[in-house]
Amino acid sequence: MQPQKSRPGAGTAHATTSRSHDNPIDAVLHRLEKVKSTGPGKWQALCPAHDDKRPSLSIKEADDGRVLLKCWTGCGAAEITSALGLSLADLFPGDRRSLHQHGTGPMRRPFDYRDALTGIAHETLVARLIIEAVNSGEDVDADALDRLALAETRISDALAAAGGVQ
Ligand SMILES: [Zn+2]
Fold it and tell me: What phi, psi does 158 have (nearest 5°)?
């Protein structure tokens, strides 16, 4: 466990008590240093992946809760998350249980296609991010590969829940 750092703005008007600490943005901001808000859903901080003297890391919270990281000296998202003790998967909202554990298993009726497709879209996004990291030569950690395997499990679970392959 890392010591908790206060989130910028903590104690001011918008307290974050109602938001779960499982939020990707909170997990990321808590671990960064010299965090400064630069606009709604945007921050700047010291990049943990290189010897940063001036904040060169841009952090952005996407509408869907994803965290986007951009280091202006070129550190990759995988390097940055691993320097924070996180993995790429931690940049995504949502719990890490499979769809099966999530209650979308074969026993559940009626089957919710919208839920399942939303889950699959999310898993595809996770896979895309990890593949992009690999493609750009980043050192992808074991957690990211585990997460990729979880994506496949979840999609297979969704298929099973929908009645399996015809
Ligand atoms: Zn950097």
Answer: -65, -40
